[in-house]
Every structure is written in structure tokens, then in C-alpha cells.
Design goal:
Blueprint (H helix, E strand, L loop, with lengths): L23 E3 L13 E4 L3 H24 L6 E10 L4 E11 L6 E10 L4 E2 L8 H4 L2 E5 L5 E5 L2 H13 L7 H5 L4 E6 L4 E6 L13 E4 H6 L4 H13 L4
Antiparallel strand pairs: 1-2, 3-4, 4-5, 5-6, 7-8, 9-10, 10-11
């Protein structure tokens, strides 16, 4: 497993420095020999940042419990890799990708995407940045390790996802899977220059179809997204504020 080592980042020159800047992250000791912990924010600082760090500590505790619940033995495996596809203020996205073989018929492969708004010190409220037709209705789902994440069931967003998911595959093997999608999880991906969309629940037998779709910033603007979101993503893309 590739271990994520994150340190304080040097300031990067961008065309609109007020809209995005490097968030300093510090790596933590792993949850196990094969499972990464989430990093902590060391720059900027303040009560709102501490609130996020406390949430990441709780997320690590859920990860440790998931490892314990998975069990031990020569055929038991639990791996977690953590990446950071957005580290441009005021948004931080961290993704944990888990592979758990806990003795069942199939291994469990899950993704937990956490996007925080440094302006509030809480998970991003997509309704603050996206028009209502892209975020309503919203439901809570279990990410697999006990984490409760918001998932979007907006018809307009589902229609975009299904069409884009089919278009980015050369075959039609996953069309029925995409057509059955009824909720999506979202996160910011600065490298891809947009908001990533993925199915909230993917059965083991069709996990090969679980490819995220990107709604890029130009499309987001056309649909009425707030400049506070799109401009920050564009600035982070230019400054390569992602890991």
C-alpha cells in the first residue's frame, strides 16, 4: 500500500491567491501496518480548524474499530490508503480507500470522501455552493466504517451522472448499473478541476463499474454554482493544490 506522507506545504503563487491557498497537513501514525490514518491540519489554525481535526480523530477511531471488527488471521486483510485531492483553501478533501477481506464470500472495497469547509469548520454544505436542483433531496448513508455521509438524490444530478458515466466507458457492460443509481456522493477534486460524483452504494459484483464522474467547473458555472466554489477549484488546479 502506498503510504500518504503529508507535511506543511510551501506557499504557491496563483493568479487569484485570495481564492485558494495551500492547506498544511501533517501525516499521522498509521492505524495499522497496512492502514493509513487521516492527516491533521496544521496550517491554518484556530477553533474551526480544531473542530475539523477532532472530526478526523473520530474518523480514525472508527477506522480502528473497523480493523478490529474485521478480525485476525492469515486470510484476514484490511488496507486503507488516504489521498487529498483538494488542499486549496477554503476546502479540504480527504479520501480513504479501504480493502477489507474479513473472511466473507467477497472482499469489501469502500471509499469514504470527506470534504470540509474551513470557513465553517464542518463538512461542506453543498447547498451553500450548488443550486437546489443539484442537491435536493439529500439523505444520510453509512460509508461502511460507521461514518455518516450526505448523499444526493437530485434527479438533475443523477441524469448528468448516468450520461457521463456511460460516455466515459468504451463498453456498455455497466449501463444497467448506472441506470439503477439512485444516490450520489460528492467531493471536490482539484486535479480533475471539478466536483466528483460517485454512486453511494455499489454491490460487490459490480464494483468494476464504480468510476467517478467529474462535473467540471465550466459545467458547474452553467448550472449556477457559486463562484466561491468554482473559482477556488480553478485556482487550486492551477497551483496543483492536491495530493
Amino acid at each position: 500500500m502506498r503510504r500518504l506522507t503529508l507535511a506543511i506545504l510551501a506557499a504557491a503563487a496563483v493568479a487569484t491567491p485570495a481564492l485558494a491557498g495551500p492547506i498544511g497537513l501533517q501525516g499521522q501514525n498509521g492505524l495499522s501496518e497496512t492502514a493509513d490514518a487521516f492527516p491533521r491540519i496544521v496550517n491554518p489554525t484556530g477553533p474551526k480548524i480544531e473542530r475539523i481535526n477532532q472530526a478526523l480523530t473520530r474518523a480514525d477511531a472508527r477506522g480502528k474499530k473497523a480493523i478490529k471488527d474485521c478480525g485476525k488471521g492469515k486470510d484476514i486483510e484490511f488496507e486503507r490508503a488516504v489521498t487529498a485531492p483538494m488542499i486549496g483553501e477554503p476546502f479540504l478533501t480527504l479520501i480513504s480507500s479501504d480493502y477489507a477481506n474479513c473472511g466473507g464470500a467477497y472482499p469489501s472495497i469502500t471509499r469514504t470522501a470527506l470534504t470540509y469547509d474551513l470557513g465553517t469548520g464542518r463538512p461542506i454544505n453543498w447547498a451553500d455552493y450548488l443550486p437546489a436542483d443539484l442537491v435536493t433531496p439529500e439523505v444520510l448513508i453509512d460509508a461502511g466504517d460507521g461514518s455518516q455521509l450526505g448523499a444526493v438524490k437530485a434527479p438533475a444530478l443523477l441524469d448528468f451522472y448516468k450520461a457521463a458515466a456511460k460516455a466515459q466507458r468504451a463498453d456498455r457492460d455497466c449501463d444497467e448499473v448506472y441506470d439503477a443509481a439512485d444516490s450520489l456522493v460528492l467531493w471536490i477534486d482539484a486535479k480533475a478541476q471539478g466536483v466528483a460524483l460517485a454512486m453511494a452504494s455499489v454491490p460487490h459484483v459490480v464494483q468494476a463499474c464504480d468510476d467517478p464522474v467529474i462535473m467540471k467547473t465550466d459545467e458547474l458555472r452553467k448550472r449556477g454554482a457559486k463562484p466561491a466554489l468554482t473559482d477556488a477549484i480553478d485556482a487550486a488546479k492551477r497551483a496543483k493544490l492536491y495530493q
